[in-house]
Write a structure and sequence with these properties.
This protein has 232 residues and is an alpha/beta fold. The chain has 6 helices and 7 strands. It is 30% helix and 12% strand.
């Protein structure tokens, strides 16, 4: 396991392939494993997987294709203890090539009055740093998670970082995820059974009330719906 510490400037590069539309359309009906395999063949060591560890579905899919794939976890310093325990559990299960990216600031109360600024220094900047030597990255985004993600492509361009972004699970429904977890007997996040539908930092995450959308517990009481890692 490695830790990313040093600050970096955003890379000024454009990854291979100027038009990702044909690739995205070709991969749309294919399996998640096919998308991972395409990315691994296309980008090799330039590829990394960024995981929130809300579950380990994408990790399970990806490391079956690329066992030594680098997995990046953003330790914001405000994760639930259960999340950190789950990270270690999953790391051991798969013997992950895990990189932990931490913020360059100390713990503070910025989340009380500046949610966007808090995410910027604890998530966005550390991810910029962790991906500074990469040409492509994978995320677990799914269209069914929210309206903001409904048009996400299997392969798209991350304009902020100048990278290609691959979303192997983008077509999966909640039922697809549940079926895969059951089939593969994947360990659940400890908070999943306590009413948490989407699990982020403890100051900004609460359990769901009956009938609420899965992401309603994130930044509740504010207009914020995304952390900034996935700009449109």
């Amino acid at each position: 396991m490695t830790t990313v510490l040093a600050p970096v400037a955003l890379p000024r590069r454009r990854p291979p392939g100027s038009d990702l539309g044909p690739v995205a359309r070709a991969l749309e009906p294919q399996s998640a494993a096919d998308a991972v395999a395409w990315a691994a063949e296309r980008f090799g060591d330039g590829l990394a997987l960024v995981a929130s560890f809300q579950d380990c579905v994408l990790i399970d899919v990806a490391v079956r294709v690329v066992p030594d794939l680098e997995v990046i976890f953003l330790d914001t310093q405000y994760h639930f203890p259960e999340t950190l325990e789950y990270v270690e559990q999953v790391r051991r299960r798969y013997d992950l090539n895990l990189t932990v990216a931490r913020p360059l600031v100390e713990r503070d109360d910025r989340w009380r009055n500046d949610l966007d600024g808090c995410c910027a220094v604890r998530k966005v900047e550390p991810l910029d740093r962790a991906l500074s030597t990469r040409t492509a990255w994978m995320s677990g985004l799914r269209r069914s998670e929210s309206a903001a993600r409904a048009s996400t492509a299997v392969v798209e361009r991350d304009a902020r970082r100048g990278l290609v972004k691959v979303n192997p699970l983008v077509t999966w429904s909640d039922d697809d995820v549940a079926a895969y977890v059951a089939e593969r007997q994947l360990p659940p996040h400890p908070l999943a059974s306590q009413g948490f539908g989407s699990i982020g930092c403890w100051p900004c995450t609460r359990p769901l009330a009956p009938g609420e959308d899965a992401r309603a517990g994130r930044w509740a009481g504010s207009s914020k719906t995304e952390c900034g890692l996935h700009p449109a």
